[in-house]
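Box S1 | Example of a co-folding query
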Amino acid sequence: MNHDHDIVQLTRQFLRINTTNPPGNEEEAVLFLEAILKKEGIGSTVFSPSSGRANIMARIEGKRKGKPVILLSHIDVVPASLDEWEHDPFGGELVDGFVYGRGAIDMKTQAVCQLLAFIEYGKCGVTPQRDIIFLATCDEEVGGKYGVEYMLKKVPQLRNASFVLSEGGFIKESQGFSHAQVSVAEKKLSRFALKATGTGGHGSVPHKDSANEKIIKACARIISYEWPIRPTAVSSAYLHGIFKGEKKKGYTFKSIEEALKNKRFREALEAVPLYNAQLKNTVTPTILKGGERINVIPTQSSAHFDARLLPIQKRESFFRKIEKLAGRDVRVVREDESISEPTPSGYDNRYFRGMSAVIKTTERYDLAVLPYITTGATDLRYFRDLGITAYGFFPVTLSDDEILRMHGKNERISVENIHRGLSGVYEIVKFLGSQDAP
Ligand SMILES: [Zn+2]
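Box S1 (continued) | Returned holo structure for zinc ion
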């Protein structure tokens, strides 16, 4: 594609706008995107759900009304602590071929690539089959209430989309094997807390009604419980694509069902946190609170858990199990703000086949393109809740190390990836524009 914008400079400028959420303050970032569209003569609408917060939407009209394709991105980021980073997380610094900044991977670079691909497609003279909507929203990192949730109420056309493209998948390079993971599903967020109350007292006179002891015992039962391996269609297809023909601990992988019967292979899979999380519910204690002074028995104690359920796991039966494990001495308090039950998107369809073909053409013909379950939660769940086919994919190649930097320290993206991301997104947008809605 022939583009007039310097994508690397734009990415660096965009990363300099601090949209740490909370509080978000995405308005400045929205005005930045609006100005780029304006310069191209493309109209857009800014939506302001509350002071300082904003979403932006622009449209290329298609041949037929209804069932638009949405290019979705969020423009808020998670906090970054300056002292842990080697480079200013909001400096947009370019060092040794990498642009550093909070949001470099999650997902400001993708937002800029989607914007420029959208602009370029609008200028190429082809009218898409259906409207193509560029939508950049706020508030994803804390649940999307002011972002996608708000926009779905404000703009009914969005609820009627035929397809949504956003974050969650990349081309992943790991141990010499690269494959494209296209996220078609995500695990279900199910946060909860255990709370205990007890009798206070002096640490020198212990008694049986200790809030801390109740919490510790309940936590021990929960964390030592082994959640069963439950391969889903998506995780089976994914792991099959990765391990086909591979030998591990003396066993050669034929199928996921066979491999899981082999204890050593199963243990090797479980030992890799990312594969483990594809196959099981995960229940992770993240915050422990109880007591202020070493010689005082506190009257209250709590533990918070970040639980992520497989798409096939029913929330109610999960909580029945948690209640049982927690026991009678503590209370289980659910902490989810928005409860969603997103159905995984299908991948035996023209969108998956079409995107695979585009990815193979732009990358390599023999690259494996595999459906994938995102272990975190994204705004795509709002669309999947509505039964809309929604994929997470950004055509850049990332190593395990680079993926771990997202939400971590020294998040960065290579200049090469920025260019590849833009041309890859453009090819995907061209494909999506050619598709009539099913
Ligand atoms: Zn994100």
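The chain is about 35% helix and 25% strand. The domain at 7-169+376-434 is CATH 3.40.630.10 (Aminopeptidase).
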